[in-house]
Amino acid sequence: MRNEVPEVPELLEMPDVPEVLKMPEVPGLPKVRKTQRMAFLRSAAIQRADPYIQQAVRGLAADGIEAGLFHTSGTAGDGDFPGYRERLDRGVTPRGLADAVAAWGADAAVSISLPCENALRDAAAKAFLDAAGIPTVMTPLAATVLLVDKWETKQLCRRAGLDVPDGFRADSDLLAGRGLPAPGYRDALRVQAERIGYPLMSKPVWDSTSMGIRTLHSRADLDAFLASPPEVSTVVEEVVEGDLCSVDIVGRPGSYRVLPLCWTGRAGAEPVFTFADLRWCGPREPADAAFAEVARTLVRLCGDLGVYGSVNVDMVHTGGRFVVLEVNPRIGGATTLSCAASGTNTFTALTRMARGLPALLVPGGGTVRRTGWAIEFLAEGRIPPAVVAGLRERVTVVTAHELVIDGTSHGDIVVFTLAEGEEAKTVRALTELHEATGFPAAGVLGKIRSLLGP
Fold first, then answer.
1. How is residue 260 annotated by DSSP?
2. pLDDT digits (tens, 9 = 90+) for 219-231
3. Residue 323 scores a pLDDT above 60
4. Distances from the Cα of 293 to the Cαs of 232, 258, 329, 380, in angstroms?
5. Residue closest to 135 by CA, chosen among 176, 113, 107, 104
6. At residue 360, does pLDDT exceed 50?
7. 18-56 burial by CB neighbour count: b if 16+ within 10 A, else e?
8. d(CA 453, CA 321)
9. Contact predicate 238/166, CB 8 Å
10. What is the pTM of this model?
11. Nearest alpha carbon to residue 357 among 17, 100, 70, 88
């Protein structure tokens, strides 16, 4: 189930290539490259990028550039990716991925993989592709290794002046007695836990999408954790309660663009499924104003690390401040939301970078302004086509497709947009649909009504 939305502009409108070539050179910007074939590296189902990946591919085709999808998960037809498609084994090595892209004859490549372990794969593939003369839009491997490690990320953010949860690292080798004997290690962790206070949250140093999280409510929970530790090292940190939010930053050193904040649920002591709550992008003052300085700090951090492409930052908004949980070196799970709410296309911006065209008109970056609301929710099971048709008659549907994670279906996920000032009209339309069909579910409709209400 997919719905076409109007073509959207780039992060900022750019003239055609001949006009770009006439522009004065801007120090630090790459040279425009002749590109005939562009490869997209992907690990998750491509439908999660609807409809913006299709728009990006059609834009390339209009410029005479063939697009190729090299993916390791899901299925893809002409409607999902209107170009060359090659399914690779999920366990493909970075070298194997790079060899497949090179064998196809790519002139450039773009990583749009997630979650972080696949971003790491693509960063290593980038090293091979760059060496083979196939420039690849992906943050370099050295920075990617730091950002996929939650403990290293915490240190980077703290040094940059960002708020992060207080915590410590629990080393799996020391807890398991591998390597250097450290009989005082468990007590050292207990001392740090007492300093921070309970509850605490343990999460794997390397993992994402809220997997492997364990809540430690008391000393007894910590003792049980230490007596039977996970096989992997973890970050143990204070529980920060508040509103979860996410932001994407796109660009290269000297030229980044910060997309609008997306709100993705509540943070608390117990982990929740990433898509369990209503997710949205829309007006929220004074949080938007308070985020401005955080955005500037994040841009400086991206520049220092040499981020090249897209990063996704997960945060908690609490007490008027933003606490950074993760900086993921990849596109985010809320990228569709931020594109829909701002009239931009992150995937097109990445292809422009691969071609040597600036994603922004001028260097220096800035914040992309919202053009309206974007709201995302997960339905229970698959939505009947007739119901989707009824939804499309009442609101502007960006996408409605099955959400599949690691081969498991979680039902259909829907994103729709509305302009500011259309809140009451939208609630009435969805209420009418619910009364006729039972969709959206009462709980989802109640959350939408609460969000858009006076």
1. P
2. 999 999 999 999 9
3. yes
4. 35, 12, 21, 39
5. 107
6. yes
7. eebeeeeeeeebeebeebebbbbbbbbbbbbbbbbbbbb
8. 25
9. yes
10. 0.90
11. 17
What is the per-residue pLDDT for 10? Answer: 36
| Cα gap 263→316, rounded to integer Å | 9
Q: pLDDT tens-digit profile of 109-160?
A: 999 999 999 999 999 999 999 999 999 999 999 999 999 999 999 999 999 9
On the CB side of 76, how many CA atoms lie within 13 Å of its CA?
Answer: 27
With the C-alpha atoms ordered 5, 10, 12, 15, is the resulting torsion angle positive or negative? Answer: negative
Q: Which one, of 290, 360, 353, 317, lies nearest residue 126 by Cα?
A: 353
> What pLDDT, in 10s, does the model give residues 242-276?
999 999 999 999 999 999 999 999 999 887 777 88
CA–CA dist 96, 129 (Å, integer): 11
Cα 46 to Cα 7, 59, 78, 311, 383, distances in angstroms:
19, 17, 12, 18, 19
The answer to whether 187 and 222 have CB atoms below 8 angstroms apart is no
3-class DSSP state for residue 366?
Answer: strand
**Burial level of 194, CB count in 10 A (0-12/13-18/19+)?**
exposed
* Residue in this structure with the two tokens 């932001």, named with its chain if needed: 247
User: Which residues on neighbouring strands pair with residue 417, listed in sequence order?
Assistant: 374, 396
